[in-house]
Amino acid sequence: MSDWPPDHRREIHDRLDSTNAEAVRRAASDPGPVWILARAQTAARGRRGRAWATGEGDFAATLLMTPEGGPATAALRSFVAALALRQALAELTGRPALFSLKWPNDVLLSGAKLAGILLETAGPPFRLVIGFGVNLAGAPDPRQLEETAMPPTSLAAATGRTVAPEALLDRLAPAFAHWEGRLATEGFAPVRAAWLGHAAGLGGTVTARMPRQTLSGRFETVDASGALVLATAAGRIAIPAAEIHFGDPADPPAPPGDVPPTDPPAPAPDFPPGEPPAPGDPDLPPGPGAPEGPDVPPEEPPVQDPPAPDTPIEHPPVEDPPGPDVPGEIPPQPPTELPPGGPTEIPQQVAHAARR
Predict the structure, then answer these.
(1) Percent of the chain with pLDDT strictly greater than 70
(2) CB 24 within 8 A of CB 122
(3) I want to staple 194 with a disulfide (CB 3.0 to 4.6 A). Which of 149, 181, 267, 282 is the partner?
(4) pTM (predicted TM-score)
């Protein structure tokens, strides 16, 4: 633990109802940062209130923190968290090319769902709760998932590697501190550029399912607010919150674990454990004097809001990856600065949690 962030506390519990629930309970009196890991959870829930259990040897941990910038930029930590988790997994396996990022908050392994990240707000005073759920040892039975769910996988099954939850936490905490530091000192641009360098489906067709409409288009980029930008027949559309699926709904389903072909930048090549990344690799912290990752284009064509459908269309719920507790379903809202008087919903990546 020599790289453990000096200002971060660390707790290991044999059993909790949920790591996110524990963080929310203490948020009023604890500003963090503190990492809370549980080897077992008895009452964890995923997004939209879906129940799930942490299998033996799987990873369930939550970071309680008071982020710089307050509620207005809290949702950007979804990208910080995803980059940090991917980096930790790449370092532990020595196979970074296996891992990609699915907007807004999933980590994929060879195109299958390995991990989910859930952000919640708590307060007042304002706190941010970031939960991580990773299938280290096992994965849910696909037959028990909804028809539209992405096939799950586990690190052990896909790579043959056995990683202890504590070992992942020891890599995740310093990786998160690194990317959080860059966000605080340099803004979202380098985080966004690094995330796009590992984005699954970039350049290909994706379908965004929202409560009352579905849009398909080419996954063009993520904008400066973190919204997904699709190139559609109606123009470039920014989507702040949606369930994302690869491909067009009219296309036949892909085999389990398959990702439709895209034209993103080539993924970073594998590197042996302990070998420093090549200069300019946005995935890992640069060494002294190493050049930074790619810059974000300073200007982009205007992006329009999603067109409202003539008739509201209801869509079935879409299965979320395993992830820590969420108190209940909250409708998505466009990104905006929170009004005075207390926290409320920020885009899909963040849900407001009432203390209990």
Answers:
(1) 64
(2) yes
(3) 282
(4) 0.74
